[in-house]
Amino acid sequence: MPPSPPPPDAPRAQTARSNAESLAAILRLARALAERGDPLELAGLDQQVGRFCAGVLDLPPAEGRGLRADLIALRQEIDLLIEALRGNA
Fold this sequence. Notes:
By secondary structure, the protein is mostly helical. The protein has a domain at 12-26 and 44-87. 73% of the residues lie in helices and 0% in strands.
């Protein structure tokens, strides 16, 4: 039996996963700068995260659940950035 074709919204989930990876890279860079004590400009980061979350919510439930690990990883990156910022306050 041939494999079933991917769902029509699969590219949206892949885009969301790519966006999660980009946000995680931004958060890691921000954390590295914070740990060095360098000044940070985080304006707009909350909007980027908000747009990402809204995009995930717009996915069909099964595809959204498929991004759970990405969401957890982003939350961990955010928590690590918060810790780094508090350490340099």
